[in-house]
Design brief:
single chain; 6-stranded mixed sheet; alpha+beta
Length: 173
């Protein structure tokens, strides 16, 4: 059992890892990947960081809850500028292509990707750090939020949020 949002992020990570096996790191993160995050942690490029950003929640009259997820896959490369830019664009293009080839990320209860964009996040600060950062962004509905969070009495399973317990993520196929 896990949240639908986390199941979705892990499914996206799994598909990207399969398509790009030479990535040194491909993980789901919380929030945006930016220069602050780059400076506060160690990273192993080439890497992809998958995130769901601020997203509207849609409560249907039937009681079903869905979310139009604003998704991002942040591509990070390092090295000489021309080589790292080239590599970042190859990875970003591959992820954009996966939006069409694996639109449901080998999971269930998600809609088709929409409003996809590739956005090179270029700044002097990134150049000084010797990295290229490109964001592949898209929207995708995640349906039936909360479906596996509550027990039969309507209480959220405490192992999902108490005492930093590791939670196994189930990716339905």
């Amino acid at each position: 059992m896990t949240s639908r949002v986390d199941t979705f992020k892990q499914a996206v990570v799994a598909v990207i890892k399969t398509a790009l096996p030479q990535l040194k790191e491909c993980v789901a993160i919380g929030g945006r990947f930016n220069l602050d995050k780059l400076l506060e942690s160690s990273f192993r490029p080439p890497a992809v960081y998958v995130s769901v950003l601020k997203s509207p929640v849609d409560i249907k009259p039937s009681g079903q809850i869905a979310m139009v997820a604003n998704c991002a896959a942040y591509v990070l490369t390092e090295g000489k500028e021309l080589e790292r830019d080239f590599a970042a664009w190859v990875i970003a293009e591959a992820i954009a292509t996966l939006l069409a080839k694996e639109p449901q990320w080998k999971t269930v209860k998600v809609g088709m990707p929409d409003k996809a964009e590739i956005d090179p996040l270029i700044s002097a600060d990134y150049r000084r750090k010797g990295v290229t950062l490109i964001a592949v962004t898209w929207q995708q509905s995640i349906n039936q939020l909360g479906a596996s969070l509550f027990d039969d009495s309507g209480i959220v399973f405490d192992e999902l949020y108490v005492n930093d317990q590791p939670v196994e993520v189930e990716i339905p196929v």
